[in-house]
Amino acid sequence: MRFQAILLLPLLGLSSARLEPNYTSSSGVSIFNPSDFFDPTGPWSLMSQAGDTLYIAGMRGIYPSNSTLAPVGLPRIRQAFQNMATLAEMVGADLNACVRLVVYTTDMYRYRPMCNDVQIELWGADANKYPPRTIIEVDRLNQDDILEVEGTFYVPRAGLCG
Q1: In what side-by-side order are the strands of the sheet with 98-105?
Q2: If you count Cβ atoms within 10 Å of the first and of the last residue's Cβ in the chain, which end, N or C, has fewer?
Q3: Side-chain-facing half-sphere of 64: CA atoms under 13 Å
Q4: CA angle at residue 118 from 117 to 119, to 5 degrees?
Q5: Which is it for strands 30-32 and 23-24: parallel, antiparallel or unpaired?
Q6: CB 101 within 8 A of CB 78
Q7: What does each C-alpha distance from 99 to 38, 53, 74, 90, 119 come to in angstroms?
Q8: Which tens digit of pLDDT belongs to each residue from 76-108?
């Protein structure tokens, strides 16, 4: 629980900021790449919004302040989840608005327990509050990373900026 409070402190200041989409398609899909976050490592965007649904791309444990990776293991996994939470907060959502998580890891045996620990830190010990999650072991991730987490969030249109 201590980690949750520490994690959310910097997010509180972001809640009043207005995040504008970088692009909105003719069908109303908004694409977001916040300028104060790290740049995507390829031809993709950090998040998109269609109607009341926010989609956050697979987040890695990259520090937004300098675009470097956190140390391997628990710090990197925490940072990946923190990146997802920060992006959701930028459009007015919180972790309780998460409707689905997908986690990709290169070593289920080693990193799944750490992923579980981070989720308990973020969502608390009440298993009834955990969003559905799929965790998949893969051979390789971008830049030989250890884990990515992507999230889908429900954010009523009135609550979204953009």
Answers
A1: 23-24, 30-32, 47-50, 53-59, 147-154, 98-105, 133-137
A2: N
A3: 17
A4: 90
A5: antiparallel
A6: no
A7: 24, 9, 24, 17, 14
A8: 999 999 999 999 999 999 999 999 999 999 999
- Domain 2-159, what architecture? 2-Layer Sandwich (3.30)
Question: What is the Cβ-side half-sphere exposure of residue 13, based on CA atoms within 13 angstroms?
Answer: 3
Whole-Å CA distances, 113 to 22, 103, 109, 131, 135: 36, 12, 7, 17, 11
Please state, in angstroms and rounded to a whole number, the distance separating the CA atoms of residues 111 and 139: 14
In single-letter form, the type of residue at position 28 comes to: G
The span from the CA of 10 to the CA of 28, in Å, is 30
Domain residue limits, the chain:
2-159
Amino acid at 153: F
Which tens digit of pLDDT belongs to each residue from 67-78? Answer: 999 999 999 999
DSSP 8-state class, residue 130: P
User: What amino acid is encoded at 111 in this protein?
Assistant: Y
Paired tokens of 66: 């300098």
Q: In 3-state terms, what secondary structure has residue 24?
A: strand
CA-to-CA distance for 123 and 9, rounded, in angstroms?
A: 15
Quote the pTM value: 0.86
